[in-house]
């Protein structure tokens, strides 16, 4: 039944898109841009869109994309109302920095943070690579071009004294990256995902590989200089052949919404998200990390939508 509803959503979206050159920004449907078809954002977005459409009696249509940067660009142009992103991209858009220099999008608002995205620097297990600094002169996958993974990977390597010119850089998504490292074409990759990361689990279980810890100095730099980052410890034995904890950094994956979506609609979207987490857990393991008590942590100064703020006050997360 859920599948039929999702298909209906997509068919309706196709008809609407075909009948007009621009999506209606604040009417129906609400357009929710997600991520690439192989990523968590895409499948989770489909499930959330189905849930929202059913419960709100308003069409919320999920749409695949190239990820966080494209999502915010689409929202800023009025071609989407909601999007998945990471806090660093929302921060850049709101402040007109990074990819959004000269095209500030200060109308972006937070609906709620969902789970930590954590850097897993996975490398082939050999004597040449014992630390992130050892990636100099090696081949490394930064992530898909324009993704938050790409941007965070550059910061991580730079914090360890490795510039983009020091490595043979590759720009592909997780699926392609795992194939490249498995085929011996690259030496390392940043799997920037929730914990446990399926791509990391697959790599470690199929080839001799390992996840590297960050240096203490690099962690200090990444946390102090970039307000979306926080220290994150991957517990021992999270992955095969990982007897020791791994120290890294993370930031939240979040849902953002345009400021001009009505307060009532934003409130209902927020309420339905958090009141149906148990249902989401049945289909999406990442939902086990969802916690409304942490929904407004680490937002790096990007404002909440008033509708979301109303809900968080109701449940005591905000005073």
Automatic annotation (TrEMBL):
Origin: domain of life: Bacteria
Database matches in CDD domains: PBP2_TAXI_TRAP (cd13520)
Record bears the keyword tRNA-binding: no
Pfam families, sorted: NMT1_3
Matching InterPro entries: TRAP_TAXI
PROSITE patterns: PROKAR_LIPOPROTEIN
Stated name of the protein: TAXI family TRAP transporter solute-binding subunit
Organism expressing this protein natively: Ureibacillus galli
């Amino acid at each position: 039944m859920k599948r039929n509803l999702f298909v209906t959503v997509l068919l309706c979206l196709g008809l609407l898109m075909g009948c007009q050159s621009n999506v209606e920004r604040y009417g129906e449907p609400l357009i929710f841009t997600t991520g690439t078809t192989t990523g968590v954002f895409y499948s989770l977005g489909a499930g959330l869109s189905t849930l929202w459409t059913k419960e709100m009696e308003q069409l919320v249509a999920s749409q695949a994309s190239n990820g966080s940067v494209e999502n915010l660009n689409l929202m800023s142009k009025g071609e989407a109302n909601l999007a998945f992103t990471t806090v660093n991209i929302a921060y850049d858009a709101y402040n007109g920095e990074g990819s959004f220099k000269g095209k500030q999008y200060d109308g972006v608002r937070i609906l709620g943070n969902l789970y930590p995205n954590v850097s897993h620097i996975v490398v082939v297990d050999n004597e040449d690579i014992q630390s992130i600094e050892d990636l100099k002169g090696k081949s490394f996958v930064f992530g898909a071009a324009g993704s938050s993974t790409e941007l965070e990977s550059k910061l991580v390597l730079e914090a360890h004294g490795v510039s983009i010119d020091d490595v043979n850089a590759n720009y592909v998504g997780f699926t392609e990256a795992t194939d490249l490292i498995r085929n011996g074409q690259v030496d390392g990759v940043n799997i920037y995902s929730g914990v446990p990361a399926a791509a990391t689990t697959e790599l470690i279980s199929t080839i001799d590989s390992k996840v590297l810890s960050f240096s203490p100095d690099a962690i200090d730099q990444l946390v102090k200089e970039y307000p979306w980052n926080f220290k994150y410890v991957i517990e021992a034995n999270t992955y095969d052949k990982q007897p020791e904890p791994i120290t890294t950094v993370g930031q939240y994956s979040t849902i953002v919404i345009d400021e001009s979506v009505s307060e009532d609609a934003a409130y209902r979207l927020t309420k339905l998200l958090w009141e149906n987490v148990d249902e989401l857990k049945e289909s999406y393991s990442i939902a086990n990390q969802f916690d409304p008590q942490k929904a407004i942590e680490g937002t790096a100064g990007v404002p909440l939508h008033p509708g979301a703020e109303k809900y968080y006050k109701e449940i005591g997360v905000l005073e």
